[in-house]
Amino acid sequence: MAGFARLTRTVDFRALHRLALPGQTEEDARVRFGWTAGTPGHLHHYRVSVTVGGRVQAPAPMVVDLGVLDGILRSEIVERYGGRLLNEVAPFDAVTPTCEAIAMAIFERIGARLPAGVRLDRVRVAEDDSLDAEYAGD
To answer: pTM for the full model?
Structure first.
């Protein structure tokens, strides 16, 4: 048994964010983004799905050791963003923390930490049941 496979792991975290352009006053942000611009921000239960791919072969046909992947996801997603106001966490202190921006930032951080031979395919970030964004790199 050998071939290329993909594996998706999902983690959750709760965090606040507010929609505002960097340096924008709350009043101006409210004109553009409505109630979502209010201080101190609003809470979401984010779900982040990370899909990795790689060659697998017997006797242990796996893309990546789950303990390794779980450790990366815990430190780069759950511990970094959980319980925080995202607007105060880099890079969102300079970029509006939309689902798209969060997916892109996570993609960069996770991709840099994966073991050799493991490829990051995509990151999907959902802030609720009705809104998610997916980033698959350039």
So the answer is: 0.93
